[in-house]
Amino acid sequence: WMVAGPLFDISVEPEGVIAEIHLPHIISLPANEVDMSWFHVAHFKDEGMVLEPPARVECFYAVLENPSFSLMGILLRLASGARVSVPITSTALLYYHFYPEDTKFHLYLIPSDSLLTKAIDEEETKFHGVRLQTSPPVEPLNFGSRYIVSGSAHLEIMPEELKLSYRSPGEIQVFSKVFAGKMEEPIILEVTDKRHKTLVWRTLVKPVELQFYAASPPSPLSAEAFMKENHRHLQARLGDLSGVLDDLQDSGVFTEEEKELVQQFPTRQRKNGKNETLLRMVEKKGPQALEIFFRSLQQRDPYLMSYLSQQS
């Protein structure tokens, strides 16, 4: 058996009011090598797994008529020992991680399942990964096949080989790390079918794209609303304040005495006390001071601001 779509937990009251439901699958149709009779709907009940053939199978979903509801999803039955190449609608996810001396990317090759994508987005966000906008492979990829990740000559890639498989969203997903140095020039990334030597995916990443993602947070919030919403995170995460304090003094928000008050705050007295003092002093100065503080943080710590803006 092969997992062919996400798992759903559906309940309906009263029962019998739904004539049919459409359960999405990841199998690429039409495809002559896929037999429609292989599709089954798996119901997971107290007594175990119960299989039911769908009424019909369409390009992106299977239809179940007069359904009974439980934990359910689409399975594909493959003959034992059969070497069938099952075409899968797939996607490539590329995440950017900023480091001053060595820019890093994470590349995932997964079935096109929104639950998988969401799980990976959430995991990458924990480590400040920013997803770049890329196109999916134009043609379906084959389940269980192996693909080679390559690119510009100076790139370091580990591992260089990815296998297209379907892991539960709760599991750690397999990805390739790509190290690109300081990214002063555009880079090319490619994915090639290991067996057939055919190119299945290609993308170009330019340094200007990374500057945009790092320095231009997508949040529509005003500076005042952003600071209010993220006060606790800023208090915990702000690092070196010297550059920000210089900006505030140069802009007339802080006097020399106020700047020194923050700098000389005894850090042993209270954890993150210096950050808290800075935030409260700026907030008391009003919206214009918050706007200047906001722009300074965008310039001085673009990675943190990009991360917080995505959360907002």
UniProtKB/TrEMBL annotation:
InterPro entries: CARD, DEATH-like_dom_sf, FIIND_dom, NLRP_Inflammasome
GO terms for cellular component: NLRP3 inflammasome complex; nucleus
Record's subcellular location: Inflammasome; Nucleus
Classification via SMART domains: CARD
Keywords of the record: Cytoplasm, Hydrolase, Immunity, Inflammasome, Inflammatory response, Innate immunity, Nucleus, Protease, Ubl conjugation
GO molecular function annotation: cysteine-type endopeptidase activator activity involved in apoptotic process; peptidase activity
Coiled-coil annotated residue ranges, if any: none
Alphabetical list of CDD domains matching this protein: CARD
FIIND domain segment(s): 1-219
Main location class: other
The CARD domain, residue ranges: 219-312
Gene Ontology biological process terms, A to Z: inflammatory response; innate immune response; proteolysis; regulation of apoptotic process; regulation of canonical NF-kappaB signal transduction
Role of this protein: Regulatory part that prevents formation of the CARD8 inflammasome: in absence of pathogens and other damage-associated signals, interacts with the C-terminal part of CARD8 (Caspase recruitment domain-containing protein 8, C-terminus), preventing activation of the CARD8 inflammasome. In response to pathogen-associated signals, this part is ubiquitinated by the N-end rule pathway and degraded by the proteasome, releasing the cleaved C-terminal part of the protein, which polymerizes and forms the CARD8 inflammasome.
Quaternary context: Interacts with DPP9; leading to inhibit activation of the inflammasome. DPP9 acts via formation of a ternary complex, composed of a DPP9 homodimer, one full-length CARD8 protein, and one cleaved C-terminus of CARD8 (Caspase recruitment domain-containing protein 8, C-terminus). Interacts with DPP8; leading to inhibit activation of the inflammasome, probably via formation of a ternary complex with DPP8. Interacts with NLRP3. Interacts with IKBKG/NEMO. Interacts with DRAL. Binds to caspase-1 (CASP1), CARD16/pseudo-ICE and CARD18/ICEBERG. Interacts with NLRP2 (via NACHT domain).
Cross-referenced PANTHER family: CASPASE RECRUITMENT DOMAIN-CONTAINING PROTEIN 8, NACHT, LRR AND PYD DOMAINS-CONTAINING PROTEIN 1
Protein name per Swiss-Prot or TrEMBL: Caspase recruitment domain-containing protein 8
Natural source organism: Mustela putorius furo (European domestic ferret)
